[in-house]
Specification:
The protein has 383 residues and is an alpha/beta fold. It contains 11 helices and 10 strands. The chain has an 8-stranded mixed β-sheet, sandwiched between helices. It has a two-stranded parallel sheet with strand order 3-10. The protein starts with 12 loop residues before the first helix and ends with a helix. The relative contact order is 0.22.
Length: 383
């Protein structure tokens, strides 16, 4: 979500006031959702003016989760029943996967454990080829559009894009399995423009619209992750969709303010959500429904932290992690060729036995992360 002046110089005062309003809402959300950093000694110390009150988890997230199974059955090529994609807005790989020199992940204990049991990830700086948003303007709507359509958008270059007219993976799955088979829950209202070309016909809850906090957050584009996360978890458990997209955004909101300690707390709160989703995925598997979880970010950040966009080429670098059925238990992988956000949707298509997009510019399945069934074309060719 591009909100800094350095990225979007044409924002007017009204937009600035809106930014302030939903930033405050995000801070309130963090006070109830985020949990303490696993190793506080490694986290930046907040300045006195940014010191936050003690953090606590809401009841919806505070229950002690069941232990995660460390081992899974061997990978098969049967189609999956459920796929979940989580996007954490504006988080560079160095803050999630560490670097080749320092691979520690102190702020992401759930993700670190996931990768050490039956997960895989690409994008760690210094470990193989890059994973990037295609850009060239590294902003949220272009990033979400790319990851959900499986190709860079030729019509969405900034955060003022109209509703997508290109079918997304959400539309494809709904057309194949029915409208009840998908769900999209996100903190940022404008995400609905990238989620589906017909969001009003599907389960799409983005921003304050329809949220329990709607009256508190009226006339803003954002609802805090503290509201979005419990809604997303309830939706995943109760509806058990074939495909669910969860968009968390407090990280980007706080980074634009230059609040590094708040960003770290938001990232650890997002990690808590990853852990809860992981356990739901395991529950699906326990009842015989093969499932997978993917986690990524729509873009990275400038080295100066606050900004992202065309003026900061390094903010195009991102990352992708995976867990569950068909996922290679490989930890952090060093890809031999560059990867991009457009490669997520082709991977999900293959996992759900949907037709490949063979058009120019389409992404390619992430075979470094998952073992995929061959297409009809490769089977006919004997490959």
């Amino acid at each position: 979500m591009g909100t800094s002046i350095s990225i979007c110089p044409n924002h007017d005062r009204t937009r600035a006031r809106e930014n302030t309003a939903y930033l405050i809402a995000a801070l309130v959300g963090l006070s109830s959702l985020a949990i303490a950093v696993t190793n506080p000694a490694t986290a930046p110390s907040p300045s006195p003016e940014r010191a936050a009150p003690p953090l606590r988890q809401p009841a919806a997230l505070a229950a002690e989760p069941a232990p995660v199974r460390a081992l899974r059955d061997p990978v098969t090529t049967a189609a999956l029943v459920h796929v979940v994609l989580i996007a954490i807005d504006g988080v560079p790989a160095r803050d999630v996967l560490g670097t080749a020199r320092d691979p520690s992940m102190p702020w992401m204990p759930e993700l670190a454990d996931m990768l050490s049991t039956h997960g895989a990830a690409i994008g760690r700086p210094g470990s193989g080829a890059d994973v990037r948003a295609s850009g060239p303007n590294y902003l949220s709507l272009p990033g979400y559009t790319e990851m959900l359509t499986g190709r860079p958008s030729s019509t969405c270059a900034d955060n003022a894009c109209p509703q997508t007219t290109t079918p997304t993976i959400v539309d494809e799955i709904a057309a194949r399995f029915g409208g009840e088979s998908t769900a999209v829950v996100g903190s940022w209202q404008l995400l609905r423009r990238a989620a589906s070309r017909a969001p009003d016909t599907l389960f799409v809850s983005c921003g304050p619209d329809g949220a329990p906090s709607h009256e508190l957050l009226a006339n803003t584009e954002y609802r805090p992750d503290a509201v979005t996360a419990p809604l997303a978890l309830r939706t995943l458990e109760s509806r058990a969709p074939r495909f669910m997209f969860i968009g968390l955004g407090d990280t980007d909101e706080l980074a634009h303010l230059g609040d590094r300690p708040g960003f770290v707390r938001a990232l650890t709160a997002a990690d808590t959500v990853i852990g809860r989703v992981r356990r739901i995925v395991d529950a699906f598997e326990e009842r015989g429904e093969p499932s997978a979880l993917f986690i990524t970010s729509d873009h990275g950040r400038a080295l100066s932290f606050r900004g992202h966009g065309a003026a900061f080429p390094e903010s195009g670098a991102t990352w992708i992690a995976a867990y569950g059925a068909h996922v290679r238990a490989a930890g952090v992988v060093a890809p031999s060729a560059p990867r991009r956000l457009a490669d997520l949707t082709p991977t999900i298509r293959r996992l759900l036995s949907l037709p490949d997009d063979t058009g120019a510019g389409a992404g390619a399945p992430l075979e470094e992360l998952v073992e995929l069934a061959p297409t009809a074309d490769t089977r006919r060719a004997g490959l």
